[in-house]
Amino acid sequence: MKREIVQMGKKVLRKEAQYIEPSEITSDTIQNIITDMHESLATQNDGVAIAAPQIGESYQIFTVAPFLFDEPEKEHLVYINPVIKERSKKEKWMHEGCLSCRWKVGEVERSLETVVEAYDEHGQKFTVHATGLLAHIHQHEIDHLYGTLFIDKARKLRDMTQKEIDEVLEGK
Question: Measured between alpha carbons, how far is 29 from 25 in angstroms, rounded to an integer?
Fold first, then answer.
């Protein structure tokens, strides 16, 4: 079921999300949350990923939009209890926004590469090395799981113009 995306100011976005016991990953509760996350993310023209706290659930889960990959069925789209095991020393200031900080944008300094260990929606542990946008997503979404929003780290933070908002809403 599609859920409203929680906006800044709500307590769930500022607390550390709950670790999920691996034996609980396949439970109806967790599986339903994952489904709700996918459905909520799919309603957003500009959304590339979403964390469970963004739909009001304080669990260590994030999902990545399948359209980011040439072959989404071969990629990990669900990350449960994710941990950044390594990150490159090389960083870059990159443009960023957030579905829970609607219509704000800025630049955040992020590592260019990450190695993340997590569980998938079937309870299988995996490790993924990412560069570029996916490494950026890993860092942004894992921040959500610890109560940090991109606005806490951003420089050149600003409200989007009405023209920019309209383009997002029109799917351009």
Answer: 9
